[in-house]
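Hello forum,

I keep getting stuck at the same step: I have a sequence, I want structure tokens, and every attempt I make locally crashes halfway through. Rather than fight my setup again tonight, could one of you with a working pipeline run this one for me? It's a single chain of 202 residues.
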Amino acid sequence: MNKKEFLEELCRRLRTFPPQEAEKTVSFYAEAIDDRVEEGMTEEEAVSELGSLDEIVAEAAGSLPLATLVKGRVEDSKNRASNKGLWVTLAAVGSPIWLALAIAALAIGIAGFAVCLSLIISAAAVVISFIVSGAALIAGGIGLPYGSFAPRLMLIGAGLILLGLGFLSIPLAAGFVKAIVRLVKLIVRKIKAQVAGKGEAQ
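Reply #2:
Ran it on my machine without issues. Output:
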């Protein structure tokens, strides 16, 4: 694939992007090809070194908000002459169905966000409860009346154990939270790549 073919295909795949973003991406890759050609490569070698169009489109989609990609995809589909009649029919007849599906998709998204948030809050709550309980037991042991040596020692010991568990669980909780955040980012990236038309063969 030479430079012209590559840029034409890239433009076609970026048609659902905001025009300014699409132009910026195409300009970047046109310049990258020119730089490689100046270094002595052929256009075909320069293009092959850039990676696949699927990867390029997915990377470009990753920098855009999901709402922007969805809006661009819908607008592109509406603007195609072959789809205009279909869109009118779907809007008129199918509104009860697609509206319900849109609400369901929104509810699933909100539920997913709530689950992730609750897992993060739970991890923080476990750490805090260990530390607070340990500190309370130590304070209770110290505050016992004189002469109660065994119960005092038991409370302080249990408090120290809980305090230690609390501090030891901080890195585990932090790792757990990071894993959830990475998972959410991965899911969003996959959705963006699908909406952007990764691997489109149209």
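Residues 95-143 form the longest helix (49 residues). If your local run keeps crashing, start a new thread with the error log.
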